[in-house]
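stage 2 :: seqdesign
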């Protein structure tokens, strides 16, 4: 079992604080490198993480219109790493479509992104038959992937447990009290003591079921207020998520829920008859420049500010952290840099 009810203290090579994507992936990479690892999490289970509500879209090239070049670079590296970590990653690209009421939006968007193909009505229909005769033009990003975040959580847990790594949920200790050579702090909003500049942004999602809709890959609909991702989960289930909801209220408003549904129907009218399975929201940790920050000290390495990019960038950051741990370096990594084509 993941939750260990034991007061016994042990010394490990690396203690990970926080069982979100960053913490779990770092733990797995440390385990595979031969290090003894333990994970400590204050929440009762994985559902307490904002990443539990994610769309599961791993499409850094699609995000280049709003994300820093560092995010795009980390995301590209991570897509290559994910299949080596757990099963369940589907690499079949992503489709971006413009709002039919704003035909120039997709042209504006295209000036900020790379590694895409323009697709016409025939190609759109070949990629996603459900969208046939609805859209005449779009963009296909062949290097994008997607997965179910909840299966990613359980997949990482299973691999870690098989390797003897224990996850202590409902942990109430202190970082200073952990018996470990190195500590990786991935607490998110719980780390305001270390990152006072952190702010919270609300992530919202709806999960619906429709047997009238058949999509095989993430579809992003561009909109003037915020863009929308629709991602298949299998068996007629889809997750609808807004890329940005810039406030920190925490709960989902009636307006936001209505907008998610309205935009989904705008993407594909058949969603009007879908069954709503779940509406959820959560708070994500964001730094002022929107780029994750890594602070490397003599004993503690702190990672924060992953925003909505946690699943997309965690493997690449974890790979860098492992190098830092092995070299015993004390430096800040992940400075701004240009996007590599």
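stage 2 :: out
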């Amino acid at each position: 079992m993941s939750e260990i009810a034991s007061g016994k203290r042990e010394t490990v090579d690396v203690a990970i604080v926080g069982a979100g994507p960053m913490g779990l992936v770092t733990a797995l990479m440390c385990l595979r490198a031969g290090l003894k690892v333990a994970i400590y999490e204050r929440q009762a289970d994985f559902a307490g993480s904002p990443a539990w509500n994610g769309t599961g879209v791993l499409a850094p090239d699609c995000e280049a219109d709003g994300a820093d070049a560092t995010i795009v670079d980390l995301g590209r590296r991570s897509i290559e790493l994910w299949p080596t970590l757990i099963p369940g990653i589907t690499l079949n690209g992503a489709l971006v479509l413009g709002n039919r009421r704003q035909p120039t939006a997709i042209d504006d968007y295209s000036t900020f992104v790379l590694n895409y193909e323009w697709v016409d009505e025939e190609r759109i229909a070949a990629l996603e038959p459900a969208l046939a005769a609805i859209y005449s033009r779009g963009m296909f990003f062949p290097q994008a992937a997607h997965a179910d975040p909840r299966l990613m959580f359980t997949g990482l847990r299973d691999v870690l447990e098989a390797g003897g790594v224990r996850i202590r949920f409902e942990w109430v200790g202190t970082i200073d009290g952990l018996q470990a050579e190195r500590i990786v702090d991935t607490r998110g909003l719980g780390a305001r003591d270390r990152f006072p500049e952190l702010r919270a942004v609300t992530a919202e999602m709806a999960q619906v079921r429709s047997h009238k809709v058949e999509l095989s890959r993430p579809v992003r609909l561009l909109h003037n207020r915020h863009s929308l991702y629709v991602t298949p989960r299998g068996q007629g289930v889809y997750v609808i998520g807004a890329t940005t909801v810039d406030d920190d209220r925490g709960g989902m408003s009636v307006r936001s829920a209505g907008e998610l549904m309205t935009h989904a129907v705008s993407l594909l009218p058949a969603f009007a008859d879908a069954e709503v399975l779940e509406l959820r929201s959560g708070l994500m940790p964001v730094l002022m420049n929107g780029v994750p920050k890594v602070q490397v000290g003599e004993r503690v390495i702190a990672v924060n500010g992953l925003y909505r990019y946690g699943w997309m960038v965690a493997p690449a950051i974890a790979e860098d952290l492992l190098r830092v741990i092995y070299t015993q370096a004390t430096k800040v990594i992940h400075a701004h840099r240009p996007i590599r084509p």
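stage 3 :: structure notes
- Residues 94-142+199-286 form a domain with the D-Amino Acid Oxidase; Chain A, domain 2 fold (CATH 3.30.9.10).
- Residues 147 and 232 are 9 Å apart (CA to CA).
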